[in-house]
Amino acid sequence: MADLKAEFQKAAQDVMSLPDRPDNDTMLRLYALYKQGSEGDVSGPKPGFFDFVGTAKYEAWEKLAGTQPEDAMKKYVDLVKKLRG
Question: Which class does domain 2-84 fall in?
C-alpha cells in the first residue's frame, strides 16, 4: 500500500509535466480518479448551475462513487503512465 501511495503521488507530480495537454474528457477522468483516490466518494454540495467546470468535475467524481480508493489510485497511475508515453 505504501508503494501504491508513493506511485500515486509521483503520478500526481508527473501529470503536471505531460508533453501535451490531454483533452477535456481525459482531464476530467484524471481529476475524478485523483479525488477518489485521495478523498474517497464525492462529498459536499454540487456546484451551482452556472459553474459549468465545477459541475463537470463534481459529476465526473460522482460517477466513481463506491470505487475503492486503492483501485482509483491504480487507475490514475496507469492513465498517467499511458499519457506520458
Answer: mainly alpha
pLDDT tens digit string along 17-61?
Answer: 998 999 999 999 999 999 999 999 999 999 998 999 999 999 999
Beta-carbon-side half-sphere exposure of residue 36 (alpha carbons within 13 Å): 27
- What are the structural domain ranges in the chain? 2-84
pLDDT confidence bin for 85, thresholds 50/70/90: confident
- Work out the angle at residue 31's Cα, subtended by the Cα atoms of residues 59 and 5, and round it to the nearest 5 degrees: 130
What the block records as the C-alpha cell of 52 is 459549468
- Residue holding cell 484524471? 30
